[in-house]
Amino acid sequence: MSIINYRRSAINDEALRLAAERQRAAESDDLRLLSTQQVAKCLGKTVRTIERWRKERIGPKPIQIGTRFHYTRRGLKQWEDSGGAIGGW
Questions:
Q1: Are residues 46 and 76 in the same domain?
Q2: What gap in Å lies between CA 58 and CA 74, rounded to an integer?
Q3: Strand extents, DSSP E, 1-89
Q4: pLDDT in tens, 6-41
Q5: How many domains does the chain have?
Q6: Which of 7, 24, 36, 74 is the most buried (most CB within 10 A)?
Q7: Residue 73 belongs to domain spanning
Q8: What angle do CA 32, 79, 53 make, to 5 degrees?
Q9: Residue 75 CA, distance from chain mean position
């Protein structure tokens, strides 16, 4: 293998490693938990509206941990992508 090919191979390996690292970071961010307050701020709604939506089973689907409710960025994005569809989850 020539030096040029070796360097190209090393650069390609580094590029692939960085791309995989960015993908893992993006997936990790998608699963990061958001509080009701953070979701309200993201959507431009009040905390009370988000709580009412949760009780009526509309809006983004929450995850309950103990007595608190959280949301994932992925779940929030899926809900927004569906046009903010109202309906049971």
A1: yes
A2: 16
A3: 33-35, 63-65, 68-72
A4: 566 777 788 777 777 777 766 666 778 999 999 999
A5: 2
A6: 36
A7: 33-81
A8: 95
A9: 7
